[in-house]
Amino acid sequence: MNFVNTASFAAQMDANDLLKNFREQFHIPKQSNGEDVIYLTGNSLGLQPKTTRNYIEQELKDWETLGVEGHFKAKNPWLPYHEFLTEQMANVVGAK
Amino acid sequence: MNFVNTASFAAQMDANDLLKNFREQFHIPKQSNGEDVIYLTGNSLGLQPKTTRNYIEQELKDWETLGVEGHFKAKNPWLPYHEFLTEQMANVVGAK
User: Fold this and answer.
1) A19-73, pLDDT tens digit by residue?
2) How much is the ipTM here?
3) What are the extents of the domains in chain B?
4) Using a CB-CB distance cutoff of 8 angstroms, which residues of chain A are in contact with residue B52?
5) Is there a contact between B56 and A52 if contact means CB atoms under 8 Å apart?
6) Which of A44, A56, A60 comes nearest B48 by C-beta?
7) Which of A60, B42, B56, B70 could form a disulfide with B62 if both were Cys (CB 3.0 to 4.6 A apart)?
8) What secondary structure letter does DSSP report for A30?
């Protein structure tokens, strides 16, 4: 691919971006003029996934209705919580 | 006070308990028969305060609308968050 320093080339690249739909999965803060911010902060605090509230609500509901028994009886039991993350985190860091 | 081993004495003690209204501030899990559990777990996971959702929603909203700028611009800015806890925690642990 030959890089071309034009807006149309950039727009074409965006149109071909296989990952572009992931953008819709995050809350993007607004500038004071109402437009989305350009958000380059990836190593500190990323954008909030739109699914975050639902995940937190699941845990709040389990805490509310189960109390300490949520360690064993929650939808995602808290005691082995780290086990739910093992496979995906291994993929992220290249572990086996 | 002379302890008396009767239900009426216990009910009287409950009626005079200055802290009893705090019970209403927590979500109490139910037994299978629909009654509140008797919850003695205080050193592991306490009952969920009814205010918890609102506190979490405040932080979710700030993350959603501010992104990383929440460290400085959130209602409760994240960077000095520990400072908000200092006075109350000092009271809890008897520090000055």
Assistant:
1) 999 999 999 999 999 999 999 987 778 999 999 999 999 999 999 999 999 999 9
2) 0.84
3) 1-49, 51-96
4) 60, 63
5) no
6) A60
7) B70
8) B
